TrEMBL record:
<dbReference type="InterPro" id="IPR027417">
    <property type="entry name" value="P-loop_NTPase"/>
</dbReference>
<dbReference type="InterPro" id="IPR036390">
    <property type="entry name" value="WH_DNA-bd_sf"/>
</dbReference>
<protein>
    <submittedName>
        <fullName>GTP-binding protein</fullName>
    </submittedName>
</protein>
Length: 496
């Protein structure tokens, strides 16, 4: 459904960023053409869906209903009461079921386009499985008979597996959907602006702990660290402080996202990934669990958006898993072994023991992921000679290394896929805590020789070095001569 020309309210100043999402919602909700519209918004918890949808209904005089875990009868009573308050009329006669409720909601659009939001829609479907079919029938009926109705219903939910199933290609609701939005965490540059952090090193450290989840900004009292030297104190008074919401947020997040499925196994699986296990077999071995049980657990975490799997850049049959939520990675890599100590000892002393683990097991891998994100979202096409299609971790057996040790490249960039293969645009290494020198470039050239021996076309492949500390003058000279691409923190946060 493309919008007609209507007056659109400006995004409230209290809504940070989300400009594209706001414009899409307002265009959908204010479309004056006849016929009911259906929109879908999904996204993990804490990303600001409710905040954005409440702002939408407030700006356009719409109706908002937030579903809760409740029996069908209670949900219907709550909806009837809130609808009567919205319309200023007496509560309707008891509804016979969701058929009456859906008809009453869509009737709000009989006179004008009006946004009607049902937030956490999966909570209603859990207690009332026929509800999607009821909505489908109501829409078909209105679109065939009532050409003046302009209801703009938005169904929102955080239970990603349920939302995917309800609006998959096989679902009848999919064919009625005019708008689909996914609210994702803020990217690393947006997160730096949210936290009002100008120093790129500090911004990356904070992002390695709380990521781009907007709600966490409010959880810590909207206080950024007081400069790079204040990071340690900030961690101690927020995430490691038992009196703050963030202290147990990782546990709550896992419980809510996985719907109480075997939480112990899920925690252990995340701890295995955080420790460096990246394949299903490695994780199962670390857990001491049958491969089938590990596979079910990992599938659940992936379906809920907590794990992401992507093919190895050099061995596409090898799927590598990584934790998508930085707070969960921070918890399971650094905090997991120190929880009891944090409840009994000074947080600063415990953090001093944790800090080396944080630097190596959390910040290092996180920095590599930020580098891959920069390639995909911010790097100019001229950097690699074409628009990147993928940026992934790559590994390759190296005869020059001891048995079992592969040659690694944290940032492997490929171009668009053709009928045979995808062009290898760049092979890069990322080092958070090392000043990079010519020997890093030599490592990359050695890796390119290995790839060529495996039949990869490396004719136009550009070596790249990504550093959180900087580069020697010799490596800078190699950059000037066009031998290597160099990316530091300033370029990650401000450049292309």
């Amino acid at each position: 459904m493309s919008p007609s020309e209507v007056s659109r309210p400006a995004k409230p100043k209290t809504v940070f960023d989300r400009d594209a999402e706001w414009d899409a919602l307002v265009a959908f909700a204010g479309d004056t053409r006849p016929g009911p519209g259906l929109g879908v918004m999904s996204g993990r918890l804490r990303q600001g869906k409710t905040y954005l949808l409440k702002a939408l209904t407030a700006a356009l005089g719409g109706f908002y209903f937030g579903a809760q875990p409740a029996a069908e009868a209670e949900s219907l009573r709550r909806l009837a009461d809130e609808l009567s308050q919205y319309t200023g009329t007496s509560p309707p006669s008891p509804w016979r079921g969701w058929e009456d409720a859906v008809d009453a909601l869509l009737a709000l659009g009989d006179r004008r386009p009006v946004p009607i939001v049902i937030d956490e829609f999966p909570e209603l479907v859990r207690q009332s499985p026929p509800l999607p079919s009821v909505i489908h029938s109501a829409y078909r009926r209105l679109r065939e008979t009532d050409f003046d109705n302009r209801a703009r219903l938005v169904l929102s939910g955080s239970a990603l597996p349920v939302m995917h199933r309800l609006f998959s290609a096989a679902s009848p609701l999919r064919g009625l959907t005019d708008l689909e939005l996914t609210l994702r965490p803020l990217d690393f540059r947006q997160a730096a602006r949210l936290w009002n952090i100008d120093d790129p090193r500090l911004a990356l450290l904070v992002h390695a702990v709380v990521g781009g989840t907007p709600a966490y900004w409010g959880y810590v009292g909207e206080r950024p660290p007081g400069g790079p030297g204040g990071f340690d104190a900030w961690v101690c008074r927020t995430v490691l402080n038992p009196r703050t919401p963030l202290f147990l947020e990782a546990h709550h997040l896992l419980q809510e996202e996985t719907d109480h499925w075997d939480r112990a196994l899920c925690h252990s699986a995340l701890a295995a990934v955080a420790s460096g296990c990246s394949t299903q077999g490695e994780i199962a071995e670390r857990l001491g669990a049958p491969l089938t049980d590990a596979a079910r657990c990992l599938a659940l975490l992936r379906d809920n958006g907590l794990l992401h799997g992507e093919p190895d850049a050099f061995r596409p049959n090898l799927i590598r898993l990584r934790i998508t939520e930085p707070l969960l990675a921070f918890e399971h890599a650094a905090v997991w072994s120190y929880r009891s100590a944090l409840e009994q000892q000074d947080a600063g002393e415990v953090w001093r023991r944790m800090r080396p683990v944080f630097d190596s097991a959390v910040v290092g891998p996180h920095f590599a992921q930020i580098c891959r994100d920069w390639v995909m979202d911010f790097a100019a096409p001229t950097v690699f000679g074409a628009h990147p299609a993928t940026a992934a971790h790559g590994s390759l057996p190296d005869p020059a290394r001891s048995a079992g040790r592969d040659a690694q490249a944290e940032v492997v960039v490929r171009g668009p896929t053709d009928t045979h293969s995808s062009a290898l645009l760049s092979v890069g290494v990322a080092r958070w805590d090392q000043v990079m020198d010519l020997h890093h470039l030599e490592q990359l050239r050695h890796l390119l020789d290995l790839l060529a021996a495996h039949g990869e076309d490396v004719t136009h492949t550009r070596p790249a070095c990504y550093s959180g500390v900087g580069f020697t003058s010799a490596l800078r000279a190699a950059e000037v001569n066009g031998h290597v691409v160099l990316v530091d923190l300033d370029r990650l946060y401000q450049g292309r």
